[in-house]
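Journal club side-thread
Mid-discussion, someone asked how the predicted structure for our own chain would compare to the paper's figures. Pasting it here so we can look after the session.
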Amino acid sequence: MTRFLVTGASGLLGLNFALYTCQQHEVIGVVNQHALKHAPFAVQQLELNQPGAARQLVQSVRPQVILHCAAMANVDACENQPELAQRVNAELPGELAALAAEFDCKMVHISTDAVFNGEKGNYSEEDVPAPLSVYARTKLAGEEAVLTANPRAIVARVNFYGWSITGRRSLAEFFFSHLAASENMKGFTDVHFCPLEVHDLSDLLLEMAAKDLLGIYHVVSSESLSKFEFGQRLARQFGLDASLIQPVSWRDAGLQAARSPELTLNTAKLKKVLQHDLPDQAHGMARFAQSLSDGLPYVIRKMITQPQMDTDKHR
């Protein structure tokens, strides 16, 4: 049994990872503004930005693995509050990585595919990032801070979806809620990505930590598609009306921050070290649907203690 310290444990990845992993391992989840109730894992409510808070936490918990999911992930909010984004996305990860090295535990830092500008796609870990937004720039700075402080850390560049407390934190939830209500919506035809279902991502992160990997890895689906096609496939998976999704360009959507159009990542490095294929879109979509059948959204939303703001948005 491994002791995991999971930051951002009320967020989409943090909460799903904690719920999934606590069935076989010890999990301590850290939340900030949004407390959880009736969680089947230990929860600590803490402002990690406070001086000495991170050190006290790691020293008291003595985790074997730190999974750092906490981030300021709302792209437009980062544009409006660049200093806060720098603190949360760049400086804090480096501090946690240094503590992981000091206390001899594994550091797994969650980064993003958005560190690239999306001009060419099929990016490998060797390609030079070129972030377009404050969010992406601060996440890249976080990668650099983590690996400088702790070269044995894992930096996982990800894009994922799943069920969340608010029901509005992932692109899949956005499409599902509108389609289920027979509402029209838009899907970007010129933004391509490789999203992973959150439990597929959790499986890979567990495997990577167990193998004690180090450095940067692209931890996304083996298959890419446009956001419009993602919505179409989700509609077919749930038997909903795909014609409600209007194909549009992201340039016509009135977004404040620039988007990277070809965020397709090459996963050959991770496939080689794990010695197996990474999940494709059909596998992830089926798992997302199964989670709904199993009642996971209901279980998750019962854990909320107060109304929440959406602190991380689909891009």
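Post-session note: The longest strand covers residues 106-112.
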